[in-house]
Amino acid sequence: QSALTQPASVSGSPGQSITISCTGTSSDVGGYEYVSWYQQHPGKAPKLMIYDVTNRPSGVSDRFSGSKSGNTASLTISGLQAEDEADYYCSSYSNSNTLVVFGGGTKLTVV
Amino acid sequence: QVQLQESGPGLVEPSQTLSLTCTVSGGSITSGGYYWGWIRQLPGKGLEWIGYIYYSGSTYYNPSLKSLVTISIGTSKNHFSLRLSSVTAADTAVYYCARYAMVQGSFDYWGQGALVTVSS
Fold it and tell me: Is pLDDT at B35 greater than 70 in this prediction?
């Protein structure tokens, strides 16, 4: 049971936009601006795509954007491309004893 | 460019201790502002934070693993290590080391991962 809740899967067609949600509590997502998103292709290490809710690391496409409302954070990918097909994980700082919590992951399929 | 590389046995017997080392290049572990951490991914599952360490030696562990985990740092060789004791088959996973940027609250650099299988 992951601390943060994500949909198991989402899908979209090339060129479309999709949004992945990540729901936590006021102890993590809702209480801090330390929400991050990671992309993981099969057999590869996770790659940081978004940090501090909305910020993109250098080199990450501006097709990726993040937002937050209350206890739910969201990752939006616009202009879907085949290479975006991957698993996506959200993460947050938590003021519980488990300082770093992850979502269960969302499998994005580009159909 | 910071790079991290895990190393260690790929097979560990049940009840023994899993030991992995993460070697950091392109940056110093003693640079302030970062924790150096371990995350694991059980087969077909999501990510689980194991813990992290600051260069001063302060450690922070996932409560679910705290009694079994030790993370230590070796500043002279720019590496840090993970020890997980009394392992079972349920500890079979890919273990990643990663750098946690404190200001960003995120893991910005990751190793490629090391598959550790617990089996006799």
Answer: yes
Q: Which structure tokens are listed for B116?
A: 């550790």
For residues B106 and B93, the answer to whether their CB atoms sit within 8 Å is no
Q: What is residue A83's three-state secondary structure?
A: helix
A26-85 confidence digits (pLDDT tens) = 999 999 999 999 999 999 999 999 999 999 999 999 999 999 999 999 999 999 999 999
**Position B44, amino acid:** G
Starting at the edge strand found earlier in the chain, the sheet holding B18-25 runs B3-7, B18-25, B79-84, B69-74
Distance from the Cα of B26 to chain A's closest Cα (Å) equals 17
Alpha carbon distance A58, A63 (integer Å): 13
Angstrom distances, CA of residue B83 to CA of A51, B95, B117:
29, 11, 15
* Structure token digits, residue A27: 């102890």
Of B48, B108, B113, the CB nearest to A45: B113
Residues of chain B positioned with their CB less than 8 A from the CB of A2: 46
Mean pLDDT over the full length of chain A: 97
Q: Do the Cβ atoms of A102 and B105 come closer than 8 Å?
A: no
Amino acid identity of residue B60, one-letter, is: Y
C-alpha to C-alpha distances, B99 to A64, A100, B96, B111, nearest whole angstrom: 22, 13, 10, 9
